[in-house]
Design goal:
The complex is a heterodimer.
Chain A (H helix, E strand, L loop, with lengths): L1 H4 L6 H4 L11 E6 L3 E7 L20 H17 L9 E12 L8 E11 L3 E10 L2 E14 L25
Antiparallel strand pairs in A: 1-2, 2-4, 3-6, 4-5, 5-6
Chain B lengths: L2 H18 L12 H5 L3 H15 L14 H12 L4
Helix pairs in contact in B: 1-3, 1-4
The chains are: A alpha+beta, B mainly alpha.
Chain lengths: 173, 85
Amino acid sequence: MSAVRSTAPAVLPQLLPHGAGMLLVDRVESLTPGRCLVAAHTVRADEPCFAAGADDGRLRYPPTLLLESMGQAAALLWMASTAYQHEQVPMLATVRGFRLLGPVFAGDVVRHRVRLEHCGQQSAMASATTEVDGVRVAEVESLLAVGRRPAELPAASAAPGEVASPPTKEKRA
Amino acid sequence: MTDVSTTHYEDLRELVADVLEVEPDELTGDGSFIEEYEADSLRAIEMLARIEKKYRIEIPQSELEKMENLDAVYAVTAGYAGWSE
């Protein structure tokens, strides 16, 4: 818990099991363990999703990655709760009520406000909203995450800080 | 069932139906979630989490094996919630 409370960008890769290119939370701005969290991510033009460029010259952030970023923020909130078992890997299991309310472009700073709705030892539910410059661009009614022990995951996908090999996530949108 | 247990049962029916994305009146007490409603393990975990949230209880995931239909979900939940018949 204390590790998350003092989260700095350099520490995040050690907390989330995502590698470069898929780590979509840059910093935690506020945290009330077990209740809520605000986290931010700057959408960079050099992210892999923009490798193909854009037809109209505007690099529009894929909603799936925005949702992934929300999920990572929610994971940090769960990991900061006393009920979280740190030997497990948090995995997004179910998404309900995701709505994209506005476009997100490269250069935008997305700010997630996450509320923990339920927290158990092996699963957690959260709701979240996302803003850019104070304007809500996305919201999700329910993110359900489950914890899986490394031995339960596909090979080479579990170690925190390593690049996970697909498929590593149980995801149903 | 008492009136209270009937209410709990019907509340669970609503919750489970929502997770399985079926109408509550389509959900029978002994209908297998997997065979009749095409549920998978993620639906089961979501069901468990929503029950825990609604009733503020903790049910071990090891109980999921038993929760194969609505009657079984009620029995497991009643046990952890301390509902008496």
